[in-house]
């Protein structure tokens, strides 16, 4: 199924990447066999998917020159500017992202940042596994969505003056610590809008290993996850980060 997905950059298809999530979202992944995609206007940063200032200024300067050369176009070009502004935001309503990272679960900060109360799951996968995990269904996402996977490019938005891919793959340099890989599904319909997207996957293909951490008791959580996997006949290794050790006075 990887052949149906556009791979941007020279990504290492077999390098481990991780998806941090709450226990509840992990249960959804395993029990419903669906991967959650967030609509791109709901990713948490208002700059997500926006255009850098220099690109907007270049576009407006070009339109302003048309007005100077032909003042009768003033009203028409002002409307064009508004359409551009509305369209830039509206395009995010048709895009959905599943966000992964190259940062391994041995970093405590990742658990603090990306799981509620420093308790949750980090699913270990690869770009190749993700691509091969999607399950085709009648009239499914591969007929309705364009799929792409890319590393995230961290740039100074005040200086950025060109884009070489969809703007949703760009983030401000302040987020470079995320080391993010994004899976993007772009809805080809411009009429229908959804709040989120859940795409059918095969957990066996998607998951390499499972990492868990609980700020209260990782061993208890590990046992619960192992029991869940056993009931579903899903044989995957469950690991606790090495930094999570008992205290001895």
Question: How is the secondary structure organized here?
Answer:
Elements (H helix, E strand, L loop, with lengths): L5 E2 L9 E5 L1 H10 L1 E6 L13 H17 L4 H17 L4 E7 L6 H7 L5 E6 L1 H7 L7 H4 E7 L1 E3 L14 E3 L7 E8 L8 E5 L2 H4 L2 E5 L4 H14 L6 E2 L10
Parallel strand pairs: 1-6, 7-8, 11-12
Antiparallel strand pairs: 2-5, 3-4, 3-10, 4-9, 5-11, 6-9
What would you say this structure looks like, in words?
There is one protein chain. The chain is α/β, with parallel strands linked by helices and 249 residues long. It has eight helices and twelve strands. The protein has one domain (2-52, 94-239). The strands form three sheets. The chain has a six-stranded mixed sheet. A four-stranded mixed sheet has the order 2-5-11-12, sandwiched between helices. The longest helix is centred in the first third of the chain and has 17 residues, at 53-69.
Number of domain modules: 1
Helix content: 25-40%
Mean pLDDT metric:
86
Give me the side-by-side strand order of the main sheet: 1-6-9-4-3-10
In N-to-C order, the SSE pattern is EEHEHHEHEHHEEEEEHEHE
**Radius of gyration from the alpha-carbon trace, in angstroms:** 21 Å
Task: Measure the end-to-end span.
Answer: 53 Å
Strand content: 15-25%
The computed structural class is alpha/beta
The largest β sheet comes out as: 6 strands, mixed
- Give the helix tally: 8
- What sort of overall outline do the alpha carbons produce when their principal axes are compared? elongated
Can you count the beta strands?
Answer: 12
Question: What can be said about this structure in brief?
Answer:
The protein is of the alpha/beta class. Helices cover about 30% and strands about 25% of the residues. The chain has eight helices and twelve strands.
